[in-house]
Structures are given as structure tokens and as C-alpha cells.
Amino acid sequence: MFWRNIWVGSNVNGSKSDHSCRLKLERWKRFLIFVQSVAGQLWFLTKVAGSVLLAASVNAKDFFVYVFTGDGKGKTTAALGQALRARGRGWKVLIIQFIKKIPSGEVEPLKKLGIDIFPMGLGFVGVSKDKSSFKKHQKAAQQAFAFAKEKVGGGGYNLLILDEVVVAISLGLLKEGEVRQFLRKRPKGLNVILTGRNASESLIEGADLVTEMREIKHPHKAGYKARPGLEY
User: Fold this and answer.
1) Could you point out which of 75, 130, 164, 168 has its C-alpha 20 to 30 Å from the C-alpha of 140?
2) Which domain holds residue 196?
3) What is the distance, to the nearest Å, from the Cα of residue 84 to the centroid of all Cα atoms in its chain?
């Protein structure tokens, strides 16, 4: 009776009135179904639009700066693993090694995979067997950094690894401000990985990802020397 009263009032006598009421009631039901359908579609479109906007914001920046730091073993190792993964995806990879002089075990295999790697250091700074002056170490680090900027400046590289550059900065071989400026103005699409202990707060703050390697146990504490194949 409620629906009938809406459309025909209280006087609904007779078959014609009943038939008319049923028609109007059916039309009303169809209208409600239509409204519900439209509302549902609008809700769905709103959700889809929100998801698209969220995805766009997440992917707005698709090139990053990683920092691997800490006093534990594994910083260079992690960076090299990242280089292999990137190369497996067809990326062009450049690795510049600061401080390190003796080619490590990874150099030749990486070259065979098409990864550009250049050890450009003079060895550990200030150790007993160090025969190079601080100025020579400084010059070598600056040349390595200039070489890296020149290589990536032409474009084409997707990943640049500056191995032990954080150590070079902490020792005063490079100016942190120059490195940070390079990171800000680097070519679009270039991902950069910095490795080395003693990363400053400003380097950490400016990075997108920071991992700290923490030494819990190491054979060198028991007197074992670095072993080829494991440490280099």
C-alpha cells in the first residue's frame, strides 16, 4: 500500500488504478536500480582514479641514490650484487673504485659481462705500507671522481657505483659538497650507489636508501689476513 499511496494517493480502487500503480511502481524500482548502478560505477571509478594517482606518485621518481656504509664487511659486495642484477636487466653499469689499487677478483668477470669497472686508487691511506703522500692520494681520488662525471655526462649509463667514495670523503680526499652537488645535478635516469664507512649525516639524509653493515664477527680479529676470493 505504501508504494501505491505514493503514486495514486489513497484512492486506488479499480483494476485500472491497480495496473497504473503497478506500472509506476515498476518504473520507480527500475529507477532506483539505475541510481544504484550509477553510484556503484562512480565509486569504482573513484577508487581506480585514486590507485592511478598513487601509482603515479610512487613512480614519479624512478632513479635513486643508495648508500652502503658501516664498519662491517659487505658494502662493496652488496654494490657488486646490485651491479649484476642491473646488468641482467640490460642496464649499462659503471663502477669507479676509489682507494683500492690491486684489482680485486670481481674486476675481470664483471668486464666480461659488459660492466665498465675502473680501480683508480693508490691503496689504503696512511697504513704502514703506504708509500704515497696524502696529496697523491688526494689527486688520485679527484681524478677518479672527474673521470666518473665525464663518463656519465655523455648519458647512456643507468647505474653508477662509486666504491669507497665515502671513505675518500671522510679522509678529506674529496669534498663532500662536490659529491652532493653531482648527485643533485646528475643525468636524469642515473642511479648512484655510494659505498664506504663513516657516511655523514648529510649524505645519509640525501640518500633514498641507506644500509649500515655492522660487524658482529670477523676472522681478522683472530689474526687471519684478507683472503683472495673472499675479501678481494
Assistant:
1) 75
2) 65-222
3) 15
Q: Does residue 229 sit within a domain?
A: no
Burial label, 62 (beta-carbon count in 10 A; 0-12, 13-18, 19+): exposed
> What is the per-residue pLDDT for 102?
77
- For 192, which DSSP code? E
* Rounded Cα distance, 207 and 201, in Å: 10
Q: What is the pLDDT of residue 173?
A: 97
Q: Domain check: are 43 and 104 in the same one? A: no
Q: Is 130 exposed, middle or buried (0-12, 13-18, 19+ CB in 10 A)?
A: middle
**How far is it between the farthest Cα atoms of the chain?**
115
Instruction: In whole angstroms, give the CA distance from residue 1 to residue 129.
Output: 103
pTM attached to this predicted model: 0.72
Q: What is the pLDDT of residues 149-161, one digit of tens each?
A: 999 998 899 999 9
Q: How far is 13 from 11, CA to CA, in rounded Å?
A: 6
Q: How many domains, the chain?
A: 2
